[in-house]
Design a protein that fits this description.
Blueprint lengths: L1 H6 L4 H15 L8 H12 L15 H28 L11 H19 L31 E3 L4 E3 L46
Antiparallel strand pairs: 1-2
Helix pairs in contact: 3-4
Length: 206
């Protein structure tokens, strides 16, 4: 594209504008991980360069980038829901093996324990945007939930910290905090999901 500009004798100011635009994208730390978002951002920004007064796309537009994040996340959530619906519509396997004896009881006990543990985790605000009108639900698409600090990793469909790319501990950001012995997120993920501080999001001063 840049070579074509030279051949077509495009003004130097326009070439520099496009060069700055592409440098913003190509030098972004999350360019490869968030390719879908950056690709949409590129297309939307370049679509503004038209008419008698084309837009200047040489600078980063945070509003457009956030819109692209939301659009990609909504698409991912829709695909996840569609996959989940297909799985639920599959007929149950009547000939599936049934566990018996102490093994079955142990499995049931583990499930119940896990369910009780999940139910005990409560939140007073959304872990992504900080709103107190709702809490984050990965299966629900909301247009009023713009991330305040975290970035979404579309490859593993999880939220990461923008500085270290670490996964956040949701228990740490619950009202009661994380009480797991040897939590695998303790070293890099015990941080506020709204600002990155050493506290949970429910006591975030930001």
């Amino acid at each position: 594209m840049m070579l074509a500009f030279d051949i077509l004798k495009v003004p130097g100011a326009v070439i520099k504008m496009y060069d700055d635009h592409f440098n913003i994208i190509m030098t972004a730390e999350d360019f490869l991980l968030e390719w879908a978002i950056w690709r949409m951002y590129d297309l939307r920004r370049r679509a503004l360069v038209k008419g008698d007064e084309p837009a200047d796309i040489s600078t980063f537009d945070a509003v457009v980038f956030r819109q692209c994040q939301n659009a990609v996340q909504s698409q991912i959530h829709a695909e996840m829901r569609a996959t989940s619906d297909r799985m639920q519509r599959r007929p149950a396997q009547s000939n599936a093996p049934v566990a018996s004896g102490s093994g079955a009881k142990a499995s049931s006990s583990r499930k119940n324990t896990g369910g009780d543990m999940l139910k005990s985790i409560t939140y007073s605000c959304c872990l992504v945007c900080g709103s107190k009108s709702h809490i984050h639900d990965k299966d629900v698409i909301r247009k009023d939930c713009d991330t305040r600090w975290l970035v979404f990793d579309g490859h593993i469909k999880a939220w990461r910290t923008p500085d270290t790319r670490a996964l956040i501990c949701w228990s740490w950001n619950s009202i009661d905090g994380c009480s797991k012995a040897g939590c695998r997120f303790a070293t890099t993920g015990h941080r506020c999901s709204l600002c990155g501080g050493a506290h949970g999001c429910h006591s975030c001063p930001v």
